[in-house]
What we know:
Number of strands of chain B: 2
Number of helices of chain B: 12
Largest interface: A-B, 44 and 41 residues
Largest sheet of chain A: 3 strands, antiparallel
Radius of gyration of chain A: 20 Å
Structural class of chain A: mainly alpha
Order of helices and strands of chain A: EEEHHHHHHHEHHHHEHHHHH
Number of strands of chain A: 5
Strand order of the largest sheet of chain B: 1-2
Strand order of the largest sheet of chain A: 1-2-3
Helix content of chain A: 55-70%
Structural class of chain B: mainly alpha
Order of helices and strands of chain B: HHHHEEHHHHHHHH
Oligomer: heterodimer
Largest sheet of chain B: 2 strands, antiparallel
Amino acid sequence: MVDIEIKRDRIVIRYKGKKWDWMIEPRYWRNAIVWTCVLFVFPLVAYFVSPGLINTMVTANIYAAIAIPLSLMTVGTGRINFGPNFYVGVGGYTAALLSIYCGWGPLTTLPFAVILSVFAAVIFSPLVIVARGLYYVLLTLLLPLLFLEVTFIYTGIFKGDVGLFGVDLLVQFENVKLNFIMAAYISTGIMLLYLLIVNKVLKSRYGLIMATVNDDEEVAHGIGVNINKVKILSFVCAAGMIGVMGWFLAHYFGTFAGITYLPLTFMLKILLVFMVGGRAQVFGCVAGGYFIAFLEMILIRTMGQFQPVAFPIILLILLFVLPSGEGLFGIYRKRHYREYLPTIHVRR
Amino acid sequence: MWDIVFFILIYGFIMGAIYLLIALGFSLVCGVLRIFHLGYAYIFPLTIYGTWMFMRELGLSMIPSIVCMVILQFIVSYLIYKFIIKKYLHDELTLLTALLLVALIVEQASSWRYPIQEGVYLETTLISGIVEIGSAAIPAQLVTGAIVGLVLTALFALFFTKTKAGLAVRAISQDIDSSRVVGINVESLYILIMMIVLIPVIIGMLLVGPVWMIEPGMGWQYMTIAILVAVLGGLGNIKGTIIASFLIGITHATMCFVVGEPRFMNLSALILVMFILIARPQGIARSESLW
């Protein structure tokens, strides 16, 4: 039977010899509650001050919600996937095609977007076993680029040149600004849900096993960890989560174009969210997502045509000056709870 | 039937030799420095747009512009080594991201200063006209490019197998620490490699520039080919790179002449690479050695 024990600072659940802890001490909640409130108040303030900021917030949430599963994938597989946008493409095209050709709404297309993303991840999951180091980086980097080519080859289906349009919108109120606010709350909800799930997984016993695989596969195998199972599970689950963001993008904009999400430039943004925000803690993805999205918006407003050049230059400088691995979140959080950083072992 | 086989072989050979020019440098950087030089994509637009910049902004003629561009390439390459590769050699994720950013900066700067409407075109044609080999008609410039590709590869192979510096580079590619112990100046050889890998790409771009499409984002397309060739051949192995270049060239030619769909070229090459990697995870040749 399930045994629930309420302690001073935590709830302990025991079932068939397994144990789960849930930290409940309110002093650990303070920062999370403050930041969650800020995120939920922001769209309302922006509604009256500058409605354009709501769109930037949605973009930031999307970046963070792609980077968070990427973080999980990196730790669990011990490899860095240079093509997470491939699963954005799979999820987005699935949602867009089903919506356009079958007339399905967002709620109906969601499970199919997830299933297709997971299916694609299962097909490519042997890569996490057979390829390592440079080979894995190279092959994952090529996947979205080749998918982009496929969208051009079968342009009759994917409309590779102009993108698919006419996708059912996520929310359809008469007031456009209200649609944006709802989208902001939905994206914030998804992002926070991902954050909660991934943080819990990484801090759990399973997270420790994943960290072992990340650190040294041979040692992990030696101590009895089923490394292939851990790697494939992390890879497939994270891909499914990223696929949901493709679904969100398709239904949020009402269009989906591979040329926007599949090239290296989009992948680079996600990678930078991960790097600038901080690799050591999954919360860094949120800091990075917001930083990148708002920096991009400010540069577009102030620099106009020069923005595409200034943006990577600023990020390159940041990469040099920010504390290695800790990123922006490392500056915010002085104490570092996790002593290891996810690494990629390219030179191995 | 035999016509098609002949076309595949002749075009596969020409394309393979040109792919050698594109991929040789990438493979060597991967093999010797043991890093994935994602910034490699910057060399392609910098060759074309750098030359164009010296011609347009300083009013130089073609040859001095090319000389200035080569000097600029060497300077950029040195700075990349000094401030990115050397600094982050053991923090690979930062290294790869920084290199990608460099490539993106060069691409975006080219696009900002010389947008595609500018119609950048370098008149670097050495031999104009068409060469007819049997029933195949090939632009003479591409044939020249193929011959130059083969000659350059032979020179690289000779350098790495017959010279003392080549021997030292091969030693580094196998074991850096042991190389240091026997007195090899690893850093200066790293810089040397960063410089010499530029040569095939610069020559290749100047040769194919008048025939193939020029646009600021071309570096990513060429880097895709370089990645496929390098991975298939076994990172850093020159023999493997040569075989892989021709295999990819023949695959591309097969897509054009048998399937009749040139847009499948890269997709078919990736499928080929994946199948070969399943059978030989280290590529065609051993990636631990240069030759």
